[in-house]
Structure formats: structure tokens, C-alpha cells
Amino acid sequence: MNAAAWDSLLSADLLVMMTDTWQRSPQKNLSAWASSQDPLQSPWIRPGDSEIITQIKQRGTPCLLAINKVDLTKDKSQLLPMLEAYSRVHEFSAIVPTSLRRDSGITALLDGIAARLPEGPAVYDADTLTNRPVLFVVQEYVREAVLNQLTSEVPHAVAVSIDQADERPDLLRISATIHVEKLGQRKIVVGKGGERIKALGIAARQRIEALVGKKVHLELFVRISAEWKNVPRQLAELGYEPGSPQGPDE
């Protein structure tokens, strides 16, 4: 998945890198940083971000940095060393502190993105919502329900596949599978007595009915597919394009 993501950046006009605020250990990496003086080794750079920044620098595409979860930092002066550290490692087009949960900084982030995108002729007609088929949107609506109703690591371990679709003039029947990586995640998605999978189905069905303009019968299953992120064939079946082997590993 990382390879597919990096591959898609080759044609991008602007990159948006998102990271989170974090409370570093006072002694973490201080000795290594003091000896190397490498800005990427700064204790204020989140682990893993240095590899991403290195990839961004190699591509040379303009990049906007969003630092999320600033609401968790009570003393806002603690953000200054982090902002300074990131500004030293790369010439970001802008650095925008945000809190998605608190809806803070979102307008500034979107305005920053819009201001840096080149204007060009319309690729699609004004009334075209997407160039993807309806069943792809159905998959996304099921994933959307999972993202909205579940927290922690579960939504990021979820993929959706369409097993069967039967469309009639007044009814659309769909069977879909929610893929997870672990047994514990499957239990969470199903819920006690099947309550959660039922709620997910209701939320997704309502969105799909609004899309297709007819009654929808949606049947959901949950399957453990432990390695779905690392198997090119499964990624292709789930709608992800296999990318090049470049890019940081998860």
C-alpha cells in the first residue's frame, strides 16, 4: 500500500504531509542528535517522519505540512520546538497546526491547498461526481461506516470487497465482505450479538440508497485476511493499484 501511495505522487501538483503532535521523552535521541547535528535526527521529529521527508525531498514536489492533534497540547508554547524542527528539515510550502476533532485549522489547511494548486481546464463535466463505477462507491460507503463508528487501529486495518451485486429496476442487492487482519478486530466489527455489523450495514445502506435512488438490500460478512496489505493480488482485488517497490515500509 505504501508503494501504491508513493507511486501516485509522481503525478501530483502538491503533497500534503500530516503528522501529529507528540510528547517526546526528554532524553530520547538527544545524545545521537547532539553528536550528528542532523536536523532529521532532531528529537522533535516524530519517529518515521524523517523517512517520509527524505522521500518528499527526493521528489521535489511542493509539500504542505499539517500538524494534527494540537488540542492535546495544553501548553501551546510546546509546539514551537516542533514547528522549528520541521521547518529546518524541509522547505514546506506552509506548516498548518490543526485539530480535526475540534475542527480547528481546517479552513486554513483547505485554503492553503487551494491556493497552491494550479488552475486548469475541467477534466470532467460539471455534474460528474466521480470517474469510478457505482460499486467502488459502495465499497467506500461501507468503509466510511467503519471509519465513523469504530476507533483505534480497526478502521485502518479494514478493506471491503464486493462479492455479488444484482440490480433490478426497484432494488439493488449487494453482498460485501469486510476484511480485517486479526481475530480481535473481527470481534469488534461484528460486535456483541452482531449489533455492530448491523449498525454498519444500516449506515452504509442509507448512503447507498441515496446514491442509486432505489431500495438497497445489503448483506455484510467479516473475514480475516491477515496479509491483505502485503499481497499484490489481494490489493488489486480490493481496488488498490500495485505500486513500485519504492517508499518506506510500514
Query: Beta fraction of the residues?
Result: 15-25%
Number of helices: 9
- What is the CATH topology classification name of the largest domain? Rossmann fold
Roughly what percent helix? 25-40%
Q: What pattern of helices and strands is seen along the backbone?
A: HEHHEHEHHEEHHEH
Biggest sheet architecture: 3 strands, parallel
Q: Compute the separation of the termini in Å.
A: 9 Å
How many strands in all? 6
The geometry reads as: globular
Domains (count)? 2
Helix and strand composition category: alpha/beta
pLDDT < 50 stretches? 242-250
Based on the structure given, which CATH architecture of the largest domain is correct? 3-Layer(aba) Sandwich
What is the radius of gyration?
A: 21 Å
Descriptive account of the structure:
With 250 residues, the chain is α/β, with parallel strands linked by helices. It has 2 domains: 2-116, 3-Layer(aba) Sandwich (Rossmann fold); 134-237, K homology (KH) domain (GMP Synthetase, Chain A, domain 3). Helices cover 38% and strands 18% of the residues. The protein has a 3-stranded parallel beta sheet with strand order 1-2-3, with helices on one face. Strands 4-5-6 form a 3-stranded mixed beta sheet. Helix 4 (79-89) links the parallel strand 2 (63-68) and strand 3 (94-97). Helix 6 packs antiparallel against helix 8 (195-212). The chain is globular and about 60 Å long. The termini are close together.
